[in-house]
Structure formats: structure tokens, C-alpha cells
Design brief:
heterodimer, A: alpha/beta, Ubiquitin-like (UB roll), Alpha-Beta Plaits, Rossmann fold, 3 domains, five-stranded mixed beta sheet, 20 helices, globular, B: mainly alpha, de novo design (two linked rop proteins), two-stranded antiparallel sheet, two-stranded antiparallel ribbon, 8 helices
């Protein structure tokens, strides 16, 4: 591609034609602040925080650096007094409509607006105070609330919902100064066909959208001597939790996390990975049965509750394609409150099952029908990675100073196949490992074709005569589902995860400032943690997990047995668009 | 002044602060709400102008208004926001004295800004016909016990607390006995 030369703050640099001012400045070592900009997702130049002075031969003028393309010999000033003053004034204007309740805000210390105000020396937050609209908090959804009094109208949530996820249940209502983000006709989010993926929370720069916090209830349960409080942690949590404590993106904190959970007072610290292995046993069996008995194909995985809700709302005619397996979170809860409760002689009513998930849709999932194998809900509380981070801080645990500890037995025993469930392609790879070994007797553990962050991946296992597809991000899922509807899908087994890149990039993971996300693929960095863990595991195939073998021997008999169906499988609901 | 290319002829009865507010109200309404400077900036400018026309403006408000106007002009995304402050900037440039009269003297020289006006009946000119009192929608005009020399009927006066400054009395008075200040 043709290169052009530009000068950023006097530093000459050569960039490909079409490079934006923001990217050129980044390459030259100068960061331009942004609030609305999300690379390839929200390039609308709306917030005007990124204004930069450029001279294209006609004198310096202000342009939006995030979207303005470089021209040959352009001079760029990213931090001239005029630029700094403009950004400061825009911040002051934003603050005049913001509720400025930083002290009681969930994002305090991790807020992009707060940081910019500090960086740009905003002395008087109330300089342009005037009359503002007051908005009621929308807490109708199961997983989150929206407080528009904090919203800065950057529209990242709108873009991620409609572009990345292809759902678009939120948008800008009204116009001008009265603009606010909400659903059509100002419906509560809980009344729409929001799938609870939480991607909007993950990209919100401020505290306008956040997950519903259940840390208080969990702490109360822990303090209750009558209750046995057990916890399970999803694979992706260990790849993201460190970020809440300032560790670099892509740091494995499995050992520290287990230690912290024990110090928080959980009676047993288990691993959702155990249930991931169990999922593979059930799902692989279901797939083989469908192939042999002429069941509905392609079969689609059912681990991601955001994806399930999406399918129920938007493709209810394709629900038969979904595997009937519960998600690992629910399988874990069901197994713990039946098998483990029996084994330990504890009444399931006295077990409080807490899950730590990178996901907000799990909060919706625990309240679904047909998710109570022992007559009580399989899972009582689903916390996000962020909530766990807050709990650890609140308890005064020196997370970074903790020595690594191991999960408890037996529901903490897992394999390499389970830990990669947290990344897109991981469930497929795990399933293929077991299927390949069962059908051919040979071992296939590394399947790079299904790894990586592309939206849709395809792989043909010639020896099994099986074609598989993997999709992450619901707009990618739509393409595959449309193909199935049209009868054009040639795959037999499909993995779909609601969040782009899989659970590692889930809506419950610690928020990463967009200034970093725009230049780092956090999906890939966090997934690396999981693949490295897999590589180091002594056992890398689910069916070889000794705890799983023991479970089937003593309790479920075999995958797909009557008992397994009662405990580990579920049903789905046909929903309509914008009807709950 | 506005981007339409139209020409508006105005005389000393037009208050330039009020004109700036009028044009800005239009752009506040028309703003789509996408970019920050236009969405919030024009609204805050309008609020400052509103304060000034109500006699609640300060000299600092003028500086703040000018600063904001240049900010919105230079930072907005589209032509609407980039030209919205023009009426404010050009009136500030050409008619600063009118702004100062509003802010410092709390007077509207053109007699437009109602909050800065008061209506009064000049007792010695009043013939006591009572037409103004009949027209007054607020029943603010009542008869007094003073009769001016050479007049047959007692004069009327306006209760400033009741007056809504509609101007109906001035329009009715044949003797030009009512003035606004």
C-alpha cells in the first residue's frame, strides 16, 4: 500500500494512506484521548474529545482525530494549547450534564471520563451547570441496570449492540439536548429481546450501565452458619480477574483466585471446568445419537446463555438444533446439589451455589425454568469477574501477595479440554478431542483451525467425515443461522458463543479502557492464558478426567442416561421479538 | 448572520440579545444531539442568554458566553453546530453595549426584554378615561385619588406586581400617557 509522510508534533512518520490521525499519532508515540471511538465498531466522531489540530497547507484547524484521514505532508498537533483547551471545555460541557456522583459510582477509579478530567486539569466541574433532564434508573433486566444520569451519549453501547451483536435493542431516543439512550418507545430493557450478553457494560466508559451486584447477598450467605456455600469459577475468569488488580492483560491468576475465594470464606472452591468436561461427555453423546438416529442436524452448542436467549427470540424455529445440555454453570450446580450433596450428606436446600462468571447472561440463566434438578435452583448467585474483584478488595485481601492454591476435590478436577471452553472454538476443540478419540482410538489434541478470534471458523475432520463451524459474536451467528434456515449449511456440529472471542471477552470481565482496546486484541491476549493452561495440563481430553469417570460410574451410569437427562439437560422457550 | 443568505432589516426596537437568543433557540431545537459541543454547548449558551434577558446575567457570563460560542463553532461535528453560535458572536461584536446594558444596568435599551421593563402612567398626562384599565388583562391598572391640574378625572396607575407587561395599555392610550422604561 502507498505510504505517506506526516509530521506529528514535529516527529516525522511514514504511514499507509488512509491511516487516521489517531493511528498516526499512536504510531509516533502520542496518544489521542477518545470517548466514543471504537475501532471498526463506532467510528462516528461524536464526542469531540479527540480533536486535534491539523495543517493541510491552509493553516491549522481542529478535526476529529479518530476518524480524520492523514493526507500527504500533513502537520498534526496533538497537544497544542488550543487542543488541550478544546478537550477541557468539551469535558466541562459533558460534566454539566453528568451526575458527578463519583464517590458512590461503581466505576470510580476505572472511569474513562474521570481519568480524562484529571488528565486535562478540569478545576471546576460545575462551570457550565444548567438545567438537566432527570432519568429514572432502568432496572427491569435481570442482569443489569441503566442510569442515564451518568450517560455521556458516546453510543458505544448502541454500536456494540447493533453492529457486533446484531441485536439493536438500544438506540438514541429524542434529539438534541433531550437525547437519551434507551429502548424503542422507552420500554424497559427487561421487556425487550435483549439477550443479556453485557457487551454494552463492557464498553461503557462510565458508570451508566453496570451489572446488578449480588456481592452483599453472597457475603450474607457466607456468614450464615446454616449454609454450605460453595463456589465454581468459569475458565475465562482466571484469564481476566488479574486486570482488576492492575496486572497486565493476559495474566493467569488461577492459583491466586482460588486462594482469595478460600479467604473470602467459601466452604468449597470448585471449578466450572469440571462441568465443562461433563458437558463434553453429554454433548458428544447427544451428537453421536443425533447422527445415528437421524436427529436434527447441525447440532449447536448450548453453553452460552446469551446465545440461547438470542436463538429463542430471533430464531425460535431453529431451537431443535440446540443441544439440550445445560450450560457448564448449570450442570455444575445441578451436579453439586444432587451427586455431591448426596455424597456429603447435605440437604441441597442448605447449599448455596455461587458461580463466578465472565458473563452477565448467567444472571439471567439462573432464573430460567427447568434449571432446578434438586428441586431448588441449580445456581443461587451468578457473580461476574468484576463483582469478585470488588469482593476481594472489600474483604481487604492482598490479592497480589497471595500464594497459589489448588481447587478442592472432586469437583475441582478438570482437564485441558475444559479450560479452553473460555475461548471461541474451545468447546468445539474439546468436543472433537473426545469424539476423535472415541471413534478412531487415536489422539488429536491441538486443533489450531478452530482457534483464533475470527468471527466464523470452519474445519472439516475428514477421518470422522464431519464438518464443523465456530462462530462468536451474534452478528456472525446470524450468518450461520440464516444459512441453516436457507438449507445452505453443510456443517453437522456448530459452536456458537454470544460474545466476540468467546467468554474471555464476556460482558462480565473487567472493563479495559477503549484507548487500550483499540490497539490490543484483548480477546487473543486472554485466550492465550487458557491455551497455555491447556498445554500444561497432564490430561487434555474430557473423557479421561478421573472425577468424571467416577461420577458416571457411581451416579449417572453413562452419558445420556435417564438420570443424566433429568439432571444435566434442559428445555428451551419460544420467544418473540420484544416479548419476554 | 444566519446561514440562510436572507437579509433581515431591524431597527432600534429590536433587542440584539433577544435576537441572538431567538436564533439560538432554533439551533438548540434543531441539534441532532450527536456531538457534545452542539448538544450541550448550544443549550448552555441559550441558558446564559436567557439569564441575561431576565436581568440575571453577570459580566462573567459574557466572557463565558463568548468562550462557549467559539468552542461550539470550532469543535462541532457538522455545519449546524459550526454556525449556530454566529448570531451570538456577531451581536457580541457589534452590539456589546446592548449586552452590557442588560448585564450592568439591568435595562433593555430596545424595550423588548420584559423582565427588564416597567410600565408607568405619567400622572400629569393622564386624562382619567380608564381605557387602559379596561384593556388590562391582569387588572393591574386602578384609579388613584390624584387629579392632575387641568384634568377633570383622577389619574390611573399601574400596580407593578400585577403587571404582565403585555403592552395593551400603551396601545390603547390616546394621550401617550403610558411609558415603558
Amino acid at each position: 500500500m502507498e505510504n505517506i509522510t506526516v509530521k506529528v508534533n514535529g516527529v516525522e512518520i511514514s504511514v499507509p494512506k488512509g491511516t487516521t490521525v489517531l493511528e498516526a499519532a499512536h504510531n509516533a508515540g502520542f496518544e489521542i484521548p477518545t470517548l466514543c471511538y471504537m475501532k471498526e465498531i463506532n467510528e462516528i466522531g461524536a464526542c469531540r474529545i479527540c480533536v486535534t489540530e491539523v495543517n493541510e497547507g491552509r493553516g491549522f484547524r481542529l478535526v476529529a482525530g479518530c476518524v480524520y484521514p492523514c493526507s500527504p505532508n500533513m502537520e498534526i498537533l496533538t497537544n497544542s494549547p488550543k487542543v488541550i483547551e478544546s478537550r477541557k471545555k468539551t469535558l466541562e460541557l459533558i460534566l454539566s450534564t453528568h451526575d458527578r456522583k463519583c464517590l458512590s459510582c461503581v466505576r470510580s477509579g476505572n472511569c474513562e471520563l474521570q481519568k480524562l478530567c484529571k488528565d486535562y486539569g478540569v478545576e471546576d466541574a460545575g462551570k457550565y451547570d444548567g438545567v438537566n433532564e432527570h432519568y429514572e434508573i432502568d432496572d427491569t433486566a435481570a442482569h443489569m441496570y441503566r442510569d442515564n444520569n451518568k450517560c455521556i451519549l458516546c453510543r458505544r453501547c448502541v454500536a456494540v449492540c447493533s453492529k457486533t451483536q446484531g441485536i439493536g435493542v438500544i438506540g438514541a431516543n429524542e434529539r438534541g439536548f433531550k437525547t437519551f439512550i434507551g429502548s424503542a418507545f422507552n420500554m424497559g430493557l427487561g421487556e425487550t429481546s435483549c439477550v443479556s450478553c453485557g457487551q454494552c457494560i463492557a464498553v461503557c466508559p462510565v458508570g451508566a450501565i453496570a451489572e446488578k451486584d449480588y456481592t452483599k447477598q453472597v457475603m450474607a450467605a457466607i456468614a450464615d452458619p446454616e449454609k454450605t456455600v460453595i463456589v465454581q469459577t468459569a475458565p475465562a475468569v482466571r484469564a481476566g480477574l488479574g486486570e482488576a488488580f492492575g496486572l497486565p492483560i493476559g495474566t493467569n491468576v488461577e492459583g491466586k483466585m482460588v486462594a482469595a475465594l478460600r479467604r473470602l470464606g467459601f466452604d468449597k472452591v470448585f471449578d466450572t471446568d469440571f462441568a465443562a468436561d461433563l458437558t463434553i461427555m453429554e454433548e458428544a453423546n447427544e451428537f453421536v445419537e443425533r447422527v445415528q438416529n437421524g436427529g436434527t442436524l447441525p447440532m449447536i452448542t448450548s453453553c452460552s446463555p446469551g446465545w440461547i436467549k438470542f436463538c429463542e427470540h430471533y430464531y425460535p424455529d431453529l431451537l431443535d438444533h440446540l443441544s439440550s445440555c445445560k450450560s457448564p454453570q448449570q450442570m455444575f450446580g445441578a451436579t453439586a446439589k444432587t451427586y455431591w450433596a448426596e455424597k456429603m450428606g447435605i440437604d441441597p436446600k442448605n447449599i448455596v451455589m455461587v458461580s463466578i462468571m465472565p458473563c452477565t447472561a448467567k444472571k439471567f440463566e439462573i432464573g430460567r425454568p427447568d434449571q432446578n434438578a434438586a428441586g431448588v435452583p441449580d445456581v443461587d448467585f451468578a457473580l461476574t469477574t468484576r463483582e469478585l474483584g470488588r469482593m476481594i478488595e472489600r474483604a481487604g485481601i492482598n490479592f497480589l501477595g497471595l500464594e497459589d492454591e489448588k481447587f478442592d476435590d472432586p469437583l475441582g478436577i478438570s482437564t485441558g479440554a475444559a479450560v479452553i471452553f473460555g475461548a471461541t472454538g474451545g468447546v468445539m476443540e474439546a468436543a472433537l478431542r473426545t469424539a476423535y478419540n472415541t471413534l478412531t482410538g487415536k489422539t488429536l489434541v491441538d486443533i489450531p483451525q478452530v482457534r483464533g478470534t475470527e468471527g466464523i471458523k470452519e474445519f472439516a475432520v475428514d477421518e470422522l467425515n464431519v464438518k464443523v463451524k465456530v462462530a462468536s459474536g451474534l452478528s456472525n451467528a446470524r450468518q450461520i443461522l440464516d444459512d441453516i434456515r436457507a438449507g445452505k449449511c453443510n456443517a453437522q456440529f456448530i459452536e456458537i458463543m454470544a460474545c466476540p472471542g468467546g467468554c474471555v471477552n464476556g460482558g462480565g470481565q473487567p472493563q479495559v479502557p477503549m484507548g487500550i482496546r483499540n490497539f490490543t486484541d484483548i480477546r487473543a491476549e486472554r485466550a492465550k492464558v487458557l491455551y497455555n493452561l491447556d498445554k500444561e495440563m497432564p490430561i487434555r481430553q474430557s473423557h479421561e478426567n478421573p472425577a468424571i469417570q467416577e461420577l458416571y460410574k457411581t451416579y449417572f451410569e453413562k452419558p445420556g442416561s435417564h438420570k443424566a437427562h433429568e439432571v444435566l439437560h434442559t428445555t428451551y422457550v419460544k420467544r418473540k421479538i420484544n416479548e419476554v | 448572520m444566519m446561514g440562510s443568505g436572507g437579509l433581515i432589516v431591524m431597527d432600534e426596537d429590536n433587542c440584539m440579545v433577544d435576537i441572538a437568543k431567538f436564533f439560538l433557540e432554533f439551533t438548540v431545537d434543531e441539534s441532532c444531539g450527536k456531538c457534545t459541543p452542539c448538544r450541550i454547548g448550544t443549550k448552555r449558551m441559550w441558558e446564559i442568554l436567557d439569564r441575561i434577558t431576565k436581568g440575571k446575567g453577570t459580566v462573567e457570563d459574557l466572557d463565558k458566553l463568548e468562550e462557549l460560542a467559539y468552542h461550539v463553532k470550532g469543535n462541532s461535528l457538522c455545519g449546524l453546530g459550526q454556525t449556530a453560535p454566529n448570531p451570538v458572536l456577531s451581536t457580541l461584536r457589534c452590539f456589546r453595549d446592548e449586552y452590557l446594558a442588560h448585564v450592568v444596568d439591568k435595562k433593555c435599551p430596545a424595550g423588548v426584554c420584559k423582565d427588564l421593563l416597567s410600565f408607568e402612567i405619567e400622572k400629569d398626562k393622564c386624562f382619567g378615561c380608564g381605557m387602559c384599565a379596561k384593556q388590562c388583562p391582569a387588572e393591574a391598572i386602578t384609579v388613584t385619588d390624584y387629579t392632575a391640574p387641568g384634568k377633570k378625572k383622577p389619574a390611573y396607575s399601574i400596580d407593578k406586581n400585577k403587571c404582565v407587561k403585555c403592552g395593551a395599555c400603551i396601545a390603547t392610550c390616546k394621550f401617550k400617557a403610558i411609558i415603558k422604561k
